[in-house]
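Whiteboard transcription, Tuesday session. T.W. wrote the structure tokens on the left side:
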């Protein structure tokens, strides 16, 4: 995607707001394209790349000083864009490997892992990013940056980090020829304790990942 995707020629391409907005827009467009399912064989590696790049923007927002909106109250953006179609497309595409376990807060002692879905994560991230993009497109740059920074800390940062860990784990299992143990019945509706999640660490054997372009590497011997 061109650096001029969102900003006009009168804006400095080195401007912090322009760079963040371009990274956000690039992620939204790229993930929406993956969700169409035209290239399912490359879905997981491509999502790994896109989430990694988005978290770079998140890290820059996180390291930036607090951004305060121009107005005390956030302007009304109208109805939020629906992300259910995106969520359902990813749920169908990633069905064998959609559910994973994650620790909600690594600094909260003895907190049991909880089941999550990559499809839910991606849809929630896009919803947060689109909200800020609506402000940006309306010319409310400070409001957009405030929202992206605030929601990075409160939601999409941790959500993207969890999804990245799951995607990286999938790629690593296959590249290192370490099949995932079969998971029998793990779902996000279940309240599973730490021992149960430890025993049910995966949902699909490595050969099932072949449909997503994740075939194990050949034995060098």
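and on the right, the sequence the group agreed on:
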């Amino acid at each position: 995607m061109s650096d001029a995707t969102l900003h006009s020629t009168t804006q400095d391409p080195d401007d912090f707001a322009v760079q963040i907005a371009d990274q956000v827009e690039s992620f939204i467009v790229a993930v929406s394209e993956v969700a169409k399912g035209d290239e399912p064989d490359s879905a997981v590696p491509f999502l790994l790349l896109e989430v990694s790049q988005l978290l770079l923007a998140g890290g820059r927002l996180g390291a930036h000083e607090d951004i305060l909106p121009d107005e005390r109250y956030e302007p009304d953006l109208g109805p939020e864009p629906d992300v259910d179609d995106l969520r359902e497309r990813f749920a169908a595409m990633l069905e064998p490997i959609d559910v994973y376990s994650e620790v909600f807060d690594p600094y909260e002692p003895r907190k049991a892992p909880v089941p999550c879905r990559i499809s839910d994560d991606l849809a929630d991230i896009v919803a947060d990013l689109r909200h800020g993009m609506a402000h940006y497109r309306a010319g409310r740059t400070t409001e957009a940056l405030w929202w992206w920074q605030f929601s990075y800390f409160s939601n999409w940062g941790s959500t993207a980090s969890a999804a990245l860990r799951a995607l990286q784990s999938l790629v690593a299992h296959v590249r290192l020829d370490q099949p995932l143990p079969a998971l029998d019945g793990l779902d996000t509706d279940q309240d599973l304790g730490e021992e149960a999640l430890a025993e049910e660490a995966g949902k699909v054997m490595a050969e099932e990942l072949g449909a997503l372009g994740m075939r194990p590497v050949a034995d060098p011997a």
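Someone added at the bottom: The longest strand covers residues 99-102.
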